[in-house]
Amino acid sequence: MHADQPPDRVPTSISRRRFLGYLVAAPTVVAAAQLGAEALGMDGLVATAAASIPSLPEPSDLFDLTDLLTWATKPTANLVAVQMNTDGSASFALPRAEVGQGLTTSVAMLIAEELDLPIAKVRVTLADARPELVWNQITGGSNSIHSLYTPVRTAAAIARGQLLTAAAMQLGVPVSSLTTSNGVVRAPSGQSLTYGSLARSGAVTQTRAVTVALKSAAGFKVVGTPQSRVDALEIVTGRKQFAMDLQIPGALPTMVRRPPTINGTVVAVANLAAVRAMPGITDVVVIPTGVAVRGATFGQCLAGVNALQVVWGKGTEDGQSDATVAQELKKAELPMTPALPLTKTLDDVFTFSFASNSPLETNCAVADVRAGSAEIWSSLKTPIVAQEAIAQALGLPITAVKCHVVEGGGSFGRHLFFDAALEAAQISQAIGKPVKLMWHRTDDFRHGRTHPMCTSHVRIAYSGANVVSFDQRHTSVSTDFSHGLGEIISAYFAEIPEGNTLGYAQAVFNLSQNVPYNFGATTQMLNEVDMGFHTGSMRNIYSPNVRCAMELMVDRVAKAMAKDPYDFRHAFLKDDRSRAVLDKVAQVGQWGRPMTAGTAQGIAFHKEYKGVCAALVEIDCRAATVNRQIEDGVGGPRVTKVVFAVDVGLPVNPRGLEAQMLGGITDGIALALTSSLHIQDGLPLEGSWDNYFYTRQWNVPPDVQIIVMPPTSSDPGGAGEFGVAAAFAAVACAYARATGTNPTSFPINHDGPLGFVPLPRSVLPPEPTDGLDHAF
Prior knowledge:
Number of domains: 3
Number of helices: 20
Strand content: 15-25%
Distance between the termini: 70 Å
Helix content: 25-40%
Low-confidence stretches: 1-15, 35-50
Strand order of the largest sheet: 12-13-10-20-17-18-19
CATH class of the largest domain: Alpha Beta
CATH topology of the largest domain: Aldehyde Oxidoreductase, domain 4
CATH superfamily of the largest domain: Aldehyde oxidase/xanthine dehydrogenase, molybdopterin binding domain
CATH architecture of the largest domain: 2-Layer Sandwich
Radius of gyration: 27 Å
C-alpha cells in the first residue's frame, strides 16, 4: 500500500459522516479542509410553543449573523491546514486573532481530539495576513469556533489518517488493525511508531482530495472537557508577548500629539526644531492624525509630545454634547406601528450613553517601512483589509506589505480597526526608520472607538392574557463597519453612506436581533445617524441595549397582567431550550425568595449566536450601599449575586466558556450601573480608566455561579460576546424592582456627578509617580 493512499477503513470510534479535504504536497504531512454545506450547523427552526398569538419567524430565526459569517468562510475553508512535525507535534496557523478569549486553546483542543494527540503537543500560532482567505480571516461576531469547528477537525482527521497509512506501510499490517493514542500509532503485535517518525514518510508529493470521517461526540475525550488555557503559564509569569514586548531591530518608542477635538487638523507647528533637540528625541513629523514624536523612551516621547506648540484646525464634532446627540436621535426615530384598537399599551423610550471599548492594552503597533517594502506587527482582527489599506496608503503593492498578527490584551471590538497599524506605517515611512507606536491611554478614550449613543423605543400592546404586538425602534449614532467583511472591496462599500445605512448596519441588526417571545406581531427596526464620531462594534454590538430595553418592558407588561416576571417569560418563550436556561437560573438562584427592602432579584433572557442564556441577579440599592465613599470612583448600587445559565449547543471548552460569561457579566454590570462617556464640546471628558468607571472590585458580585448546560447540538455556537446582553438586562430589571422605578437612562449614574476631574484637552497627563500611596 502506497503512503498516498487513504486508510482502508474508518475506526469504529469514528462516525460515518464524511467530509472532503486535501492532503497537501509538503515535506511533512500537511492536511487541509474543505467545508461542506452540512457542516454549517444550521439547525432550522425550533418548534413553536403553544400560545394564543404565536409570532412569525424572524430573519435571525431563518438565517442569522453566525450563518452569514460562516457561509463567507466556505470558499476558502480548504486553505486551513494542520501540519505534522518531526518532533511529534502538530502546528496550526490560526486565521483569527487571539485577544484573550481563549481561542487558541479551543482550537488546540479540536486538533488534539481528532489527532489523538496531547493538547500540549499542539502549537497554535496566529497567521499573518493572507489575502487569499478573503472573508475567512476576520475575528468577530462570536463566530470563530462555529466557523472553524468542522474545517479544523477535518484537517486534523486527514492528518491522522495519513499517519495511519504511513504506519501501515512500515509495519506491513492493515490500517484497520492500528490504533492511536497520545501521538503514537500501535499495532496488535505491540509494535508502535510515533507521529514524529511518520511525519516525513507520510508526506505526499502531489496535492489531492480525500474524504474523511470525523469522531462522533460519543468518542470525544478532549472536546467538552474543562481545559485551562494553553498560554496560562506564559500569562502568569509575564512571558506572554504582546506588540509592545516585541524587540524589532531599530524600532524605538513613538507617540502622537493629537488634536483637542475629534478629527481636528494640524495647521502649523511652531517649535519642531526645538522638540527635535530635546533629550532622547530622534524624530518629529506631522502626520494626518497629528504630530508624531520618536525617542529613546516612551517617557521622553511623552515630554516631547507635550512640548509641541501646535496650531489646530477645527474638528468635526466641536459643538456636540450628549444633549445635541440626543436631539438628533429623537429626530431620526422611525415611526411606530399604529396601536391596535381594543388593546392596552405600554410605551417607553430608553437612552444608552456612549461607551468606550478601549481594552486594557492600549492601541499600539510596530512598523518598519523601507523603500519598496513594509512590515507591521499589531493585534489585528481584520489583517487582510489592514494589509490592503496600508499598502494603498504607502503606495506599495500588497505583496510588499507583511502584516503579522500579534496576540492582543483585549479587544471588545476595538481591534476590528487597524488605525494604530496604519498610523505606525505612515510614521515609519515619513521618517525612514522603524517605530514602536503606542497610543496614550487618554487618546485611546478620547480619539479611539466608542459604542455609539442610542435610544430604543418599545411599545407593547396586550389584551387579556395575551400580548398582541411588540414594536421596537432602535435609533443610533452610526456604527462604523468600514472594516467590511475583512477585505478591501467590502470595506469600500461600507464607507459609502448608502452602503453603511442600507447594508452592513441593517444586515447586522436584522441578523442578530430577535424577539424570543410569542408576542403576536413583532417588529424591530434600526435607523442610524452618521454624526462623524469614531465608533465601532463594541462587544455584542446592538444586543445589550436592545435586550435591556426589551426585558425592562417585559417586566412591565408582566406586572400589568399581574404575572410574576419569571412565570410570564416561561409562558411566552418560544421553545423548550429557551425555557430550560430560564428554569435553571430560577431554580439555582431561588427566584422569588424573600428579599430585604431596597434589594431585589432580576431575571432576563437572551438568544443569539446559535445559543440561549439567562441571568438571575440580586442587587443592593439600599442607601448605605449606594452612598459608599469610594476614593476616585463611584459606589452606587451593587450586584451581590449572579446566576447565569448558558447553552451554546456544544461547549468545546466549558472552562473557557465560563470565563467568557464572567467577562460578559462584568461588562453588563458596568453598562447598567457605572460606565459611560460624557461628550462635551465634541470630546469625551473621560480620559483614563480612572475616569471611566468600569465594574471595579467593590462592585463585583461576591457570589457568581455559571451553569454550562449539557450539549443540545452537535455543533458549537458563539460565546465571546454572549454574556453581556442578558446580564445587562437582568441588572436593569433588578434595579427597577429594588427601587420601584422605571429606569430609562443608562448607565444609571450617567446624569449624576462626574466623580472625577476631567483631564486637560490640550496636553497628555504626566505619568503618575505616587502609585504606592494609593495601594490598599
